[in-house]
Design brief:
By secondary structure, the protein is an all-alpha fold. The chain has a domain at 28-40 and 47-99. The protein contains five helices and no strands. Helix 4 (70-84) crosses helix 5 (93-99). The longest helix is centred in the middle third of the chain and has 15 residues, at 70-84.
């Protein structure tokens, strides 16, 4: 990398701008928070679903976006909820794995470069 063409004169502001490039801002829509827990029974035998399709879909989108394994995904979601001071919990990694087969996720993986 060559020398910069512009001299930096305001170092505190420049330094703050560089630090802010690494910030992660994450928010969850109020509607998604309200729909996080399932209120319907699946209709089959056994206990009803604890987490809604919205919760599983959100988890799977984050998994794809950040390329996280399921256990790390569970920890990441719980961390986000803790930082947001929201009384929600992440679905367990085994729950996400099982429900991933039945929940349709409207998410496209990031491109891995130009298509040849």
């Amino acid at each position: 990398m060559g020398k910069s063409k512009h001299r930096i004169t305001n170092w505190p502001e420049y330094n703050k701008a560089l630090l802010n490039r690494g910030l992660l801002t994450f928010w969850i829509d109020e509607r998604a928070i309200n729909l996080w827990c399932s209120t319907e029974h699946h209709g089959g035998r056994g206990r009803g679903l604890q987490y809604s399709d919205t919760a599983i879909e959100t988890a799977l989108m984050l998994k794809g976006l950040f390329n996280l394994p399921l256990r790390a995904l569970e920890g990441f979601l719980n961390s986000v909820f803790s930082l947001m001071n929201v009384q929600l919990t992440s679905p367990g990694y085994s729950c996400i794995s099982k429900r991933a087969k039945t929940v349709k996720v409207n998410y496209r993986n990031p491109s891995r470069g130009a298509i040849a």
